[in-house]
Amino acid sequence: MTLRLLAAQALQQLPEALRKLDPRHLWRSPVMFLVWLGSVATTVAAITGPSVFTISVAVWLWLTVVFGNLAEAVAEGRGKAQAASLRATRTDTVARLLADDGTESRVPGTRLKVGDRVVVEAGEVIPGDGDVVEGIASVDESAITGESAPVIREAGGDRSAVTGGTRVLSDRIVVTITAAAGETFLDRMIALVEGTSRKKTPNEIALSILLVSLTLVFLTAVATLPPMADYAGAPQDLVVLVALLVCLIPTTIGALLSAIGIAGMDRLVRVNVLAMSGRAVEAAGDVSTLLLDKTGTITYGNRQAARFVPAPGVSEERLRDVARLSSLADQTPEGRSIVELALTQGADDRDLPAGATFVEFTAQTRMSGVDLADGTQVRKGAGSAVAGWLGTNPSPEVTDVVDEIARSGGTPLVIGCIDAGAAEGRVLGVVHLKDVVKQGMRERFDELRSMGIRTVMITGDNALTARAIADEAGVDDFLAEATPEDKMAYIRKEQEGGRLVAMTGDGTNDAPALAAADVGVAMNSGTAAAKEAGNMVDLDSDPTKLIDIVEIGKQLLITRGALTTFSIANDVAKYFAIIPAMFVAAYPSLDKLNVMGLATPQSAILSAVIFNALVIVGLIPLALRGVRFRAASATSVLRRNILVFGLGGIVVPFAGIKLIDLLVSTIPGIG
Amino acid sequence: MSDTAAGLLSIAVLVLLLAAVYVPLGDHMARVYTSSRHLRVERLVYRLSGVRPDVEQSPRSYALSVVGFSLVGVVVLMAILIGQSHLPMSRDLPGMPFWMSFNTAASFVANTNWQSYAGESTLGFTAQMAGLAVQNFLSAAVGMAVAIALVRGFVRVKDGTLGNFWVDLTRGTVRILLPIAFVGAVLLIAGGVIQSFSDSTMHTLSGADQVLTGGPVASQEAIKELGTNGGGFFNANSAHPFENPSGYTNLLEIFLILVIPIALTRTLGTLLGRRRQGLAVLGAMVFLMAVSLTVVTVAEVGGHSATAQAAGAAMEGKETRFGEWASALFGMATTGTSTGAVNSAHDSFTPAGGGGVLVNMMLGEITPGGVGSGIYGILVMAILTVFVAGLMVGRTPELLGKKIGSRQMTYVALYTLTTPALVLLGTGVAMALGATPDTMGNPGGHGFSEVLYAYTSGANNNGSAFGGITVTSTFFQVTIGLAMLLGRLIPIVLVLLLAGSLAQQGKVPETAGTLPTHKPLFVGMLVGVILIMTGLTYFPALALGPIAEALA
């Protein structure tokens, strides 16, 4: 987001920020409410005893409140824009309600009840959330996911859930409604991105308690100051006391706290993940165990040819070319990967010779292959199937290779060939198929490990295969032949040890585990039950995103901590500006504390107030964007942030207040 | 030997002595509070008082026991002080006035030992021994019990209990305070501190008779320092030659002041099963003590005020047998530990030196703090530190495997609010009263410092007096009395509730993503948070007192 765009948004949200000056709204943030009270008090003082100084302080105190509101309004504004576009898709649909006797009647979509069955045909909008109980259709879900490629939805299985507001592109389906109007996924999504259902998260509440107590400490310090000042012979003006109070209380974090939270949710929305609560986002930062499905997350999801192992007496080129020949017409991912591998190893790219017929894989033969016009036959398949077809047992060398590949977790594909005219065929060799780990996964897992997060691979494979892939991918642990119960047990075990667990899932049988996990990300392509059970939904149905979610959670917490630290550290400089200004008349020696060399007491106080207001504006981009996050150990992340926001928080205001003072001191009546 | 060499040497000896007992004493205290064995004398105490020693208490029950025990202590002590003329060995002294007795009872029960009276001319031996000295033991044992309860909160997992207060109280007294105090008293007597039950009459050179007040001083003195109490037998406290006759006894007293608070960090580490955590806490304490000692010593030795320069040295209010170095060292130790004993008049310190000891108390008595209260005080600050800065590692805050949520923060916030509120409200109200300037011993910023010091000392349970100010008016007796009592009991109750909420939790395992709390980085953060929080709270008040004076 560029600053220019942000400025435009800020301008656009200004009316909203002014509307939020209503004290009933500000009451939610006690810190800002106190600033509001201070603004009212100084305004009264400015009216009864107007001076350039008093009026300036009053104006800047009001601006402090407005800037705080602006931060929140801009953060909310982004969600509102998104909600508006979602709302546009929730047009009033007409549902074709299917009665038990099979007759159809047309009712408004808003009148549908849970359990109703509706018919949706090509070109029609699905009237509500539900499960497909009959038929198969391609559905355009771009309204929700932003992804234009249609998806397949079919009865039974884990791809049966449809979302209200999406459009059927082909075929006809019957849908059982699973959510009443007003409680659909789309409705919830609108409420979420709009922030209407936003509640303070546990950590926000705890932080608010700290901010309130700090505010009370400063309130006490300032409220008890007048008798001390009177004794010192330096009675203090109400306006000055209010200015001191506002500068001391943690206005920076108080003003930006809700914006940080909203922006965190918004960052998730931007990666197409919907969090059902801010609590889940916070939990994501705390996660210490990630359960990742092997297929689709760690590996590409289908086995691919990795190498050719020729049988004794067969050249590698011959095996390569025959294997390629056998797969040219094979459109399975495995077949395509063999052709690709052969190509990279130098095979030519000739097409299948004329007259060749493709022999498809069947469950009975467990082989596929090709018959050439000259009578040559080629088959590839499981060792035993090919042996059966050839009528001979493969050589011990080939058997060894087959066993070795199976042991390493791969799939051995034996290539057999009966040459034209030959009496009997022979085994040419073995193609090693294996799960290919996605590029960069090992690095991702290393990063996660450095952040203290364990990755656990979940797979239906046997332990042997699982271990091989786990080693290759660099995960910390794996769960082989995993049933939903196993997953559940694993989550419980981790949680008993005090660890927070995150997982993804899409099937109905994942629902209990999704509900038990601290962060359960349901795939949007999954069933309604899964989506209901998780506390986040990934609209792209990309399980890899769990890692992004964790990073966004951490970033949210870091931003909150960084701005709190910055806010408190700022107070040091403000004291050095205001305290000498207040008491230099009574104790001239205190001028030595005026290390910034501020022009006059009035310019010093006003400069501190102005800095206090401007720093809110200056930090809005950071609050919305989040503190830059990089995967590293807690110690190194902390050291950097302490340096930037702790020490920076002490140093920056000294420079800032001095600069403002240089300008302010030119104003007649102040300088 | 030059003053500097002697001063540095005594600091070195002190450090060596503390280092020598650190491990054995710390581990002994850990065993005291974890052992399942009861001594015979302890069984007798339990039987007589009807305590079932093996019953664990809930946080609420533990807190009620502490508060009830303390309030009963106040009432009993008030009765002794008011009715002392009816007690044996009363030296024919009258009973204490009501509000003074309230102030004194609150003071000794709260481990503060603020004294608005002069010991030798106000109290008989029975009131000193059966009244004040008993509270010197018990209030110290209470502090340790609360600290141990908080540590148990961190150690226990999904547990609703914090131990048994009566057992902790008894064991702390019987197995820790009594034996060390006994040895301490014997060593003090060997050093010349008096121990008698009569006054003595001296014939002066001019032929007149002078009565010198005697009494069981050494036995009182040992626990006065060991329990970080600080209430002197004599008005002059440890500046009095009968309480603290020589450089040797002076060093011994400083050692006694520091030994338990310092060694408790070892106890902490041992009980947590993380020795390095104990060292980290000690590191933060020692760093702040070193800074404080440097400031006060430099101010007293080098940075003389105008008056001191005119006199040639800042020796006003200091004993010539101790000198500037030993006075500064004692001042740092006594204000850093909530002891409040003094061997010199803090009122007469240079502005920077007096400000130094004042700030020492404002830190919240955690450098290294009172017996027990120092540990729970600094652990509360550690929670505050992980909360503010811990978020910056990208996890919700946790300390020692316990999550710091809104419940914990509520207790911590109220804790950190209590003492500043008592100090500032007390000082503010006092300054608002027209009569207050008349009670001050000095005009201007220094007079204000006297009032600020009084409430700071009371609310932080230190008990040392800046001096100068007259605090015998009912207003001061009541408000400082309340500041002491509330400044003691409110934090204790909050700490116990905090401990309970921590004990209930499970334990979060440590990973590479956890903020390590035993490394220098965290120690630095802890020191930073303590300094910034204290500075922000008290800077305006300090500016009107010591700072204005020091910069003049």
Automatic annotation (TrEMBL), chain B:
Similarity comment: family membership: Belongs to the KdpA family.
MF term (GO), any: hydrolase activity
Main location: membrane
GO cellular component terms listed in the entry, alphabetical order: plasma membrane
Subcellular location, record wording: Cell membrane
InterPro entries in alphabetical order: KdpA (IPR004623)
Chain segments annotated as transmembrane: 62-83, 134-155, 176-197, 251-272, 279-299, 371-391, 412-433, 475-500, 521-541
Task of the protein: Part of the high-affinity ATP-driven potassium transport (or Kdp) system, which catalyzes the hydrolysis of ATP coupled with the electrogenic transport of potassium into the cytoplasm. This subunit binds the extracellular potassium ions and delivers the ions to the membrane domain of KdpB through an intramembrane tunnel.
HAMAP family named in the record: KdpA (MF_00275)
Record keywords: Cell membrane, Hydrolase, Ion transport, Membrane, Potassium, Potassium transport, Transmembrane, Transmembrane helix, Transport
Protein name from the UniProt record: Potassium-transporting ATPase potassium-binding subunit
PANTHER family: POTASSIUM-TRANSPORTING ATPASE A CHAIN, POTASSIUM-TRANSPORTING ATPASE POTASSIUM-BINDING SUBUNIT
Membrane topology: Multi-pass membrane protein
Subunit-level organization: The system is composed of three essential subunits: KdpA, KdpB and KdpC.
